[in-house]
C-alpha cells in the first residue's frame, strides 16, 4: 500500500466519523426541540378550547370587609395592605382611607 491509499482511507474514515457525529447532533437537537414544544401552552387556543376553564369563568370572591361573595375590586393603601372590596364597602371606606386601585 502506498501513501496515497493510506491518505484516502484516512479521509474516508474522517468523513464517516463526521457523518455519524452530524446525524447524532441532529437527533439531539430534534429531541430538545420536541421537549421545549411540549411545555408551551398557547393561551388563545386554551381559552377557546375549554369553555369551563377558570380563565374564562368569573366567580365571586368574599369581600375583605363584609365577607359577602360579590364581584371585587382590589385596592392598596399607603402601607401596602391589599384588600378586595365590593362597591358598598368601597363607598364606606372611601372617606376614611386613601385607597389605590390595583
Explain what you see.
The structure is a single chain. The radius of gyration is 32 Å and the shape is rod-shaped. It contains three helices and five strands; from the N terminus they run H-H-E-E-E-E-H-E. The protein has a three-stranded antiparallel beta sheet. Helix content is 50%, strand content 14%. The chain folds into two domains: 3-40; 61-101, no CATH class. Strand 3 (73-76) and strand 4 (82-85) form a beta hairpin. With 102 residues, the chain is an alpha+beta fold.
The 3D shape can be described as rod-shaped
How much strand?
5-15%
How many strands, what sense, and barrel or not for the largest sheet?
A: 3 strands, antiparallel
Number of helices: 3
Distance between the termini: 84 Å
Strand runs, count: 5
> How confident is the prediction overall: mean pLDDT?
82
- SSE pattern: HHEEEEHE
* Spatial arrangement of strands, main beta sheet: 4-3-5
Low-confidence region ranges: 53-57
The share of residues in helices is 40-55%
Question: Helix/strand-derived class?
Answer: alpha+beta
In total, the number of domains comes to 2
Gyration radius, rounded: 32 Å
Amino acid at each position: 500500500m502506498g501513501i496515497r491509499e493510506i491518505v484516502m482511507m484516512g479521509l474516508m474514515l474522517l468523513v464517516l466519523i463526521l457523518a455519524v457525529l452530524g446525524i447524532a447532533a441532529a437527533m439531539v437537537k430534534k429531541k430538545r426541540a420536541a421537549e421545549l414544544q411540549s411545555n408551551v401552552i398557547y393561551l388563545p387556543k386554551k381559552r377557546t378550547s375549554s369553555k369551563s376553564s377558570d380563565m374564562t369563568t368569573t366567580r365571586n370572591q368574599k369581600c375583605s370587609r363584609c365577607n359577602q361573595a360579590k364581584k371585587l375590586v382590589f385596592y392598596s393603601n399607603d402601607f401596602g395592605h391589599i384588600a378586595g372590596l365590593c362597591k358598598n364597602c368601597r363607598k364606606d371606606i372611601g372617606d376614611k382611607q386613601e385607597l389605590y386601585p390595583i
